Prior knowledge:
By secondary structure, the protein is of the alpha+beta class.
Amino acid sequence: MSLTRKLPRTIWPLSLAAFALLVSSTAAQPLPAANRPEDAGISSGRLQRVHRQMQADVDAGRIPGAVLLIARKGKLAALDAVGFQNRKSRTPMRPDSICRIASMSKPITSVAAMILAEQGKLDLGAPVAQYLPEFKDVKVGIEGTPPKRPMTVQDLLRHTSGLTYGIFGDSPVDQLYRKSNVFRAKSLAEMVTAIASLPLAHQPGEVWEYSVSTDVLGRVVEVAGGMPLDRFVAEHITGPLRMNDTGFYLNASQAARLAHPDQPMAMADTDATVKPALLSGGGGMLSNAGDYGRFCQMLLNGGTLDGVRILSRKTVELMTSDQIPASTERHSPVSLMLDAFGPVPEMGTSFGLGFAVRVAPGRNPVPGSVGDFSWSGITGTYFWVDPKESLVTVLMVQIPRDGLVPYWRQTRMRVYQSLAD
């Protein structure tokens, strides 16, 4: 049974009495609900301000609809659904509406790799070619320069592999990616073979370049784990965490809860009910706020949730630490596009093993804490975890790329202004 399908449309109250009534009558919550927002250190009045602002965004056409989950101190303080799941059909957004989460797939795939590391089946410091021999003879640049050192599994996790996406930059290697149509491969194995036939854009370790690294990592998970990526994720992450609405495709019942953008956009033009031939660990998953909130709470708890341990506390600490050497160039096209959310020193941010991490106070125009970690999706979804504040926030929305960074900035400010202690 879905953990969130019986949720009312919102558990953000117009009054504390209404909040208590809704929580007490709800059969299932993604996380234990606070009796009132104040019990989790959140202001009810300021939550109403956030709700009004989000509704204004819907009314102005800035977003079709959204779901915002806020959990603090292990308690669900807010789960607000505003606007439309599908504006054309006037279908209201629901707390359990499902979104294409794009690159928010990456943290899940990264956790899968760390599970294998804990099982002794994957060595993070080993060359990728140890698991994927097709990378044994890879060269750098169209000149075919030998790599100074091998690409490692750690490089895949932190995006210092030398790989690229081919869609954000216009280097000769980016152009080769676009011509090769690696994303049209008929399987993850075929995609990775195609990627390995192309030159690296950079020497491994020298540049933070957002890339197909996590898709390659997904194939490493398949090889080291001995099963397809979707099965590994289901058996080791989404199943144990009861993330029942998270996966690479939807059943018919789930499809009725799929959120749609107001206008056509990338990654929203395929049939979500058909199992994809290419299981993209870098961008192919779907989820909802409740499910992803459970995933984030597990990380905040040091790898455990509801008595189920996914990772050890020290592994989570490793993943959420600064993994980028000071000598690594970080001003790639995606870093610049991400602005406050990119891993650049000017913003006091860096990157761990699957997430951006805040490493310095100040510098950044959005509120947060040193040690908070986050990531996002090109379809609009965004999450962050702030251990210092015991805070988890998940935003599910489907909007075009040009509106992403401003909306994420606004969401951070809205959530932090609601803290009451």
